[in-house]
Amino acid sequence: MSSIYAQITISGKVVSIEGVLPGAHLWKKSNYKINDVTDANGFFRISGLKQGDTIICSFIGFKEYSFKVDASKDNMLIEMQSFSQQLEIVEVKASVLGAENFAFEKIKPLDIYKNPNSKADALVAITTQMSSTTKDENAAVAFRGASPQQTGYFLNGVPVKNPVKYAQLTNTGTLSIFNTDFLKSATVFPGNPPIECGQATSGTVVLELADRFPEYWQHTASISMANVGYSSRGQVGEKSHLGLFANYQFDGVLKNVNSVNFQDINSFNALEGGILFTTHQSWGSVKFYQYGLNDSYNFNFEHPSYQDGFLQDSERSLTTLQWIQNFGYWQASIVAGNSFNKKQFQFGNMNYHTSNTDPYAATNLTYSNQGDVFKSGYAYWGQNSWIVGSVPTLNYALAPDHPSVKIDMDDHLESHELYVYGRKKWRNQAFGSGVRTAFMPESNKQLWSYQFNYLLDITQNLKIKAGHGKYYQTRIDTERQIIQQAQTSLDLDFKGKRWAIHQSFFRNHGDSAITGSESRVSIFLRRNFQLDQSTSFYNQEGEWEWFARTFIKYNPLTDWTLNASFQAFKGNTYRLVNSTIYLSDLDVYAPTERSSIQLFSPYANISIGASKLFQFSNKLNGLIFINVSNVFDFKNENSITYDFDYSAYDHNLLTRRSLYAGIIFNFVND
Questions:
Q1: For residue 56, pLDDT beyond 50
Q2: How far apart are CA 371 and CA 127, in angstroms?
Q3: End-to-end Cα spacing for the chain
Q4: Where is the TonB-dependent receptor plug domain (predicted)?
Q5: pLDDT digits over 98-142, tens only?
Q6: pLDDT digits (tens, 9 = 90+) for 239-286
Q7: d(Cα 507, Cα 128) in Å, to the nearest integer?
Q8: How far apart are CA 510 and CA 339, in angstroms?
Q9: Do the Cβ atoms of 308 and 320 come closer than 8 Å?
């Protein structure tokens, strides 16, 4: 037989100027079923080819690459060209994060989509990291035993408070207000938050949206048991880019399929949409983002004095505007934004709404050259809160005819902040330090933060990070709060060819005191198996807490991914009501004495999932997925519900066994 008809196998590696490209898709032009997807190290292998076949290599954000099969050429190196490399006239200005070298992890959209437990949501992906100690199955990130409220979130340089939906209480669908399709990166600081991003006392999540989209238009449509969504993004003219998205979250299918898990949820829905516009001109780069959300959640709430549906409604708007200009090694930037949130709560004799607006503006000047960074700036942050309606007079009498009190109050808090931060790189070491101060005119109060960081690259595979700092945070919830916290941490990273180890020790002290350690081991066997095991231990106010997480990913066949996860942590605490007094005028029982602190059983959750990547053509591909949460239906206790006189009680449970599935289509028109 002539060699031209012999079967050929080719292999190689796909890279870009930024490094390897995991998840790049290669397929035979005349038969898309003959294909492969690059692994975590960018490697691929395709069999069943013949001399002269055309292979297409594709990766979102990069120019499509094609080549002819040649039996004499194996172990190929394919260098993909980013669309950004084609913009020769105008350089795109990207925001410089001074403390980036000291971050715990930088997550890109591909990392989120490939994470079997993220549900394609940026914040949920972060809650699966070892530093997260989130205990309530939602997207609000808690780091290293601290309160979720102490975590700082920044989107395009603008602070965002409470970035989760009510509909996320179902633990399905898109949980946070951030759209992963538009995300450029999420930089995670679980401790020692960067001085340049103030107002965080535990950890910080810095999210940056895309600076540009491909020159062709890319469309994504998703359909699942609780969600339909669509996004479109591409280039407008030679120097501008536009992205649009809409998403609707609904309850019907999910409730019918998982009736036991959702038996206490009457309804939930969320409608959201957004627009992202960027332009890159000689006078600078501008990025504008507008987001809107209408969110509703109604669940059965049982209280000894009254049982009915508890209604929560929310309207939300988020606006960010960013301008960046480079002058050689210097960069000037201005960011501005506003967050508006209106919430309605209704149950029994409770009926009130809260409104919050948080205008923000900042200017920054940055010097960056070969790892050395100097950054300084000014920021203004206004926090405005209004509460209007009626609330129960007594917390044990919640029926509609029980006494309530009218409330009509507002509070305002503003701060003017200055900071300076510097980072110096010297051979295999980097030093960083900074100071930040805030002046609050209403109270004539001055607050201070400071920070020291150190990075040592002992070898190419071994790194040590150390940090210490003191931080402040101002908030308006039901009342004004000023939280102050100091943190010290030591992190070690050791990477081998097929394994990686991370060990961290930390201490947080101030308004609360937490001391602990975190350990993670990752193992990569061949190209198709990954095991990630992490454990956390910390002591808070004399009580030991622990977390354990295991993630397994296996690729049995090309385009197929199987995954399993196990999470466990120490149960929450509670106090039982020991005695009551009957109030005849209200016909209710009032608790008078509670027991000592008791523990719920430890939390445990084993989930499994599968996904299949499919390719219809070089312009249409997609992903179908299915996930079963809490496979063994562990009864994870979360709270207590009493009967009318507190003589008996039931344990309320978190997510029961539930099935979630969907499909995502990606298509382009060039």
A1: yes
A2: 30
A3: 41
A4: 121-203
A5: 888 787 788 877 677 766 567 778 888 888 788 888 887 777 888
A6: 999 999 999 999 989 899 999 988 888 999 999 999 999 999 999 999
A7: 21
A8: 29
A9: no
Among 393, 358, 381, 416, CA closest to 163: 358
The CA distance from 669 to 185, in Å, is 25
Q: How far apart are CA 494 and CA 12, in angstroms?
A: 26
pLDDT above 70 covers a percentage of the chain that reads: 93
Residue (of 266, 340, 272, 261) closest to 301 by Cα position: 266
Q: What's the whole-model pTM score?
A: 0.86
Task: Take residue 292 and report the two structure tokens written for it.
Answer: 């809107």
Output the six-digit token pair for 328. Answer: 């050689």
Strand boundaries in 50-182, DSSP class E: 54-58, 65-68, 76-79, 105-107, 152-155, 158-159
CA distance 439 to 449: 12
The residue to which tokens 């599935």 are assigned = 661
Coil/strand/helix, residue 195: helix
Cα–Cα distance for residue pair 6/12, rounded to 1 Å: 20
| Per-residue tokens: 65 | 């690459």
pLDDT tens readout for residues 324-353: 999 999 999 999 999 999 999 999 999 999
Return the ∠ at Cα 62 (arms to 500 and 68), rounded to 5°: 95
User: Could you give the CA distance from residue 659 to residue 365 in angstroms, rounded to a whole number?
Assistant: 50
